[in-house]
Amino acid sequence: MKRRCISIFVIVLVALLSSCGRNIPLEDLTISLILGVDLDDEMNLIISESSPVFNEDAKKNIETYQLKAATIRDSRKYFDALATGEVTAAKIQVLLIGKRVLEHEGWFSILDTVYRNPSFSINTKVIVVDGPVSEVIFYEPDDKPQMPLYLKEVIDKNYIRTRTVESNLQVLHRQMYEKGMTPTLPKIIKENDVKFVGVVLLEENGKYVDALSIQETSFLLILMDKQKQELTLSIPITTFTDEGGIFNKNMLSIDISKVKSKVTTNYKQGKFHFNYKISMTVNIIERIFPKDKVKEAELKKLIEKELLSRFEAIIEKIQENKIDPIGLGIYARAFQYEQYKKVEKQWGEALSESNIDISLDIDINGTGAIK
């Protein structure tokens, strides 16, 4: 009897809650799928939004608006005045932020309403546009799906393939408030087409400092222990001179199938010391230079040397910019807490003076089906 009374109570409660909601026909809604934030040449905040059109009489299946506003929330009333239906942000898939915004400190406060509004999805992808956001949000290619779906698929695909960092509102919020690391975001540009080109590196306050190419990002993700699937890298073996002509004669492509990474943390002589031990299983899938040019044992050492130089280049860029996209500060806090707390507020400076050593050991698992 008690169970039956509880069931009746739940049914009545659900009915009451559902009756309090507003049933708005789909064609009377403007469902924003992309939100854009940018600055114009006069440093005015520019907010843009893109929404699908469900009206069968409409000639275009998407409507896009752009306007000046004091804040993101302030733009809502202006969009309501322009849009054909009532604007809702509950289904936004992508947040585009112009690089010009990131070049100023304090930009993160612009997103206050995004985190405060419970209907705004924290899984919304955050992407940096190197150039005007309007060039991306107003772009309507004939040979691609609608821009919200296209951008989301591009970022998801490259994340799975270890080419870009995880990027959504929840991750960005954590990185902005985590003192042991600095934020990273994927970057796109609009040239003849919209394309993903790498990631941007931000200071602890979110200000833009540098960028990494797609291949550099893959090395960063290995250092972050974020490899997802088998990773393909193409590298020139610089020990061999390119003989010129129209074909590169020193290129090598490898598939990295397994990566094991161990980081040890110490503090001595007034510095933090981080020691990476990285082991990889690789398959050679392309070798332009002749087989008799190098023996397999020597080739192993050459690959290790080339890969190690790229890891070290990433570390050098990190220390020069006094940032920590890897999250080495989290290791320092976990294993050298007392020393870390002394420099927590200047962690970027402390990391720039740290010793970061990398040792690399690869195992060549295969050289291809045909020798």
UniProtKB/TrEMBL annotation:
Residues 25-188 form the Spore germination protein N-terminal domain. It is found in: Membrane. Coiled coil: none annotated. PANTHER family: SPORE GERMINATION PROTEIN B3. Residues 198-368 form the Spore germination GerAC-like C-terminal domain. Pfam families: Spore_GerAC, Spore_GerAC_N. Gene3D superfamilies: Nutrient germinant receptor protein C, domain 3. It comes from Cytobacillus eiseniae. Belongs to the GerABKC lipoprotein family. This is Ger(X)C family germination protein. Its main location: membrane. Keywords: Germination, Lipoprotein, Membrane, Palmitate, Signal. It is a lipid-anchor.
